[in-house]
């Protein structure tokens, strides 16, 4: 259960970060309304807060989070931007998830 809770928290954290960065991208690259900076700011604040909810040290959390972020970013690319990941994207995501699992779920005594 802890594994599912942790992965779910990582996914929510990644979605908050991606949304917080994607909205300014829309303003700067696509000419969207500057009002999108407000939800972007809130989303990035949510992202920072969600990172504090993880049960281990910040450095290990950030390292493991990076693996999940890659996978969620590729899902965002497909769902929001309409660009389907290719096999190299999928292989890369699997490698980063394997690294994330090693970092975050390795049995440790300290």
From TrEMBL:
Keyword Membrane set for record: yes
Gene Ontology cellular component annotations, sorted alphabetically: plasma membrane
Origin: domain of life: Bacteria
Presence of keyword Signal: no
Subcellular location: Cell membrane
Spans traversing the lipid bilayer: 32-50, 62-78, 90-107
Entry coiled-coil feature ranges: none
Keywords assigned: Cell membrane, Membrane, Transmembrane, Transmembrane helix
Topology class, membrane: Multi-pass membrane protein
Database matches in InterPro entries: EmrE-like (IPR037185), UPF0060 (IPR003844)
One Pfam family of this chain: UPF0060
Sequence similarity: Belongs to the UPF0060 family.
PANTHER family: UPF0060 MEMBRANE PROTEIN YNFA
Protein name: Small multidrug resistance family-3 protein
Species annotation: Silvimonas terrae
